[in-house]
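Support reply, case 0932

Customer input (verbatim):
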Amino acid sequence: MSPDVDLTARKPGPRLLRDRLLALDCRLFEFAAARHWPAAGPVLPRLSRGANHGVLWFATAAAMAASRTPRARRAAARGLASLTLASATINTVGKRSVRRPRPVLDPVPLVRQLKRQPITTSFPSGHSASAAAFAAGVAMESPGW
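Our regenerated output:
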């Protein structure tokens, strides 16, 4: 049995550009966390949970396919194929390559935090990659959708 791999451990050596980008990322995260968005409290955690494992996009594809037009069904299928490829790539190669640890959630109000925090690295984002891939796949087949 192989030992567990710490995906958040950074590779040794100077990484000036990486360190600057991480510092900027930290400042942007803290800026967003400090903002008071009344509607975000109940919505964002639910939206995040709904996007886990592509559930939101599978539901969207099902709704598209239910429209019973061949173009909508092809767009839904292409969106799901894109989602599958992007998710597999990001969650294997992407996260193992970048290894960005999740930010400390101290500045985020409790109402906007998830009850169970993810354990994988946070960049590249699986949620963002899935959303972009699904939207791009659908748009390639049917820009109207």
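We compared this against your earlier run and they match. Two observations from our side: The mean pLDDT is 76. Helices lie at 16-34, 40-51, 55-66, 70-98, 126-141. Please reopen the case if you see a mismatch on your end.
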